[in-house]
Amino acid sequence: MTSTRTDRPDATRTWRPAGPVDVRRTLGALGKGPYDPAHHVSTDGAVWRTSRMPSGAVTYRVSTADVELRVEAWGDGADELVAEAPALVGGDDEWSGFEPRIPLVARALARHPGLRLPRQRRVFETLVPAIIEQRVPGVDAYASWRRLLRTHGEAAPGPTPVPMWVPLAAEEWRALPSWAWHRAGVDPGRSRTIVAAAQRAPAVQRLVDRSYAEVSAGLRSLPGVGVWTAAEVLQRLGDPDAVSVGDYNLAKDVGWAFDGKPADDDRMLEILEPWRGHRGRVIRLLYADGALSRPRRGPRITRMDHRRR
């Protein structure tokens, strides 16, 4: 049950970033669909999110006032959250060496100068929804994530504008019975991958301060985690070069934008090679600008309701 809006935050922080920050688009990379129980954009434009810090659950609100950003946090994890808030909204995003090179990318950058890459530090928390998204349409993955949090998650602390829930801790993911996964629409393969990752959650979290190459290798050492899942996590850890090779739509979208026809992964990587070091950034900019939106005429990925199997 949510508390009243008059509740004072347990911790706050206000700072002036070095450049423009589009809070909604930047933190939007962490959200899982329009009805994510852990992510909400309120009518005043502020972004509300929940997370689970080492010290406990937290709800935080990030807002913009003139050229300053403000974060308010509620819950046992509030102090830890505000300490890392600038990095979370792209304060550590490194643009050195990036050049738009062509009008398509230059136009996207000019239209979205505040788009930053967030640096989420909860590696295991970021990994779980990426695993849920494996091999299924996004709409189905988002629905599974929503069911799992609303049924088994902890109610968010603080004055959330809508009911919100906190992602489960590793031990809670491990303890979920098979029927819980089934009811949420998560097949046994993906649930086993999450449980196996949860059993190694401390080691997964220790990857947070390693190089991106080491993080990728560490994640891919987990059973059921491949290059696509690792890239999805890396993008949310702030890696500007992570590309989701193996994605059902991405290569086709990139090919359409650059060649006027769908491409495969090899051609996509060839197209993006001039931006090596910032290939993931280019993709984020082009998606934000609507440039990676091809006509959907071909077959779509088959949707399967695993709750009925």
Distance between the termini: 33 Å
* Radius of gyration over C-alpha positions, nearest whole angstrom: 19 Å
Helical content class:
40-55%
Shape: globular
CATH class term of the largest domain = Mainly Alpha
Broad structural category = alpha+beta
Order of helices and strands: EHEEEEHHHHHEEHHHHHHHHH
Unreliable stretches (pLDDT < 50, length at least 5) are 1-6
Q: Could you state the CATH homologous superfamily of the largest domain?
A: Hypothetical protein, domain 2
| Total individual domains | 2
What is the CATH topology of the largest domain?
A: Endonuclease III, domain 1
Could you give the order of strands across the largest sheet? 1-5-4-3-2
CATH architectural arrangement of the largest domain: Orthogonal Bundle
Count of discrete alpha- or pi-helical segments spanning 4 or more residues? 15
Q: How many beta-strand segments?
A: 7
The share of residues in extended strands comes to 5-15%
Can you summarize the main beta sheet? 5 strands, antiparallel
- pLDDT averaged residue by residue: 94
